[in-house]
Amino acid sequence: QVQLVESGGGLVKPGGSLRLSCAASGFIFTLYHVGWYRQGPGQQRELVAEISNGGKANYADSVKGRFTISRENAKNTVYLQMNGLKPEDTAVYYCKAKRIMLEEVHWGQGTQVTVSS
């Protein structure tokens, strides 16, 4: 019963902020790298940000300086703080967990983020 559940998406105006959450259950969260990916209409899924089990973060150039990924292991949750949102950030955002040292990967169902006036 591995499960990743995203929340926090919605409609926001350009320049606004959103905080996405991904709640994990059914596996040992501390043994996984986690990340956020997004997929816009007609686009391929792309990496937004990722964070290792040790807390090292990596960001796509398009979101660097605007987005912050973090994890709270005690709550089995990863967050994505999104500031200075732009229309091009509009996409379905997915949470991913990858087991360290192994190829095991789990995906959430996604949450819609729409940035529009």
Describe the model:
By secondary structure, the protein is mainly beta. 0% of the residues lie in helices and 53% in strands. The chain is built from no helices and eleven strands. The strands form two sheets. Strands 2, 4, 5, 6, 9, 10 and 11 form a seven-stranded mixed beta sheet that branches. Strand 5 and strand 6 (57-59) form a beta hairpin. It is globular and about 40 Å long. The mean pLDDT is 97.
Q: Descriptors for this entry?
A:
single chain, 117 residues, mainly beta, 53% strand
In short, what is this structure?
The chain contains no helices and eleven strands.
Strand-residue proportion:
over 45%
Give the overall pLDDT as a whole number: 97
Distance between the termini: 40 Å
Number of helices: 0
Low-confidence stretches: none
- Largest beta-sheet characterization: 7 strands, mixed
The total of beta strands comes to 11
Structural class: mainly beta
What level of helicity do the residues show?
A: under 10%
**What's the overall geometry?**
globular
Lay out the secondary structure.
Elements: E1 3-7, E2 10-12, E3 18-25, E4 32-39, E5 46-51, E6 57-59, E7 67-72, E8 77-82, E9 91-99, E10 105-107, E11 111-115
Parallel strand pairs: 2-11
Antiparallel strand pairs: 1-3, 3-8, 4-5, 4-9, 5-6, 7-8, 9-10, 9-11
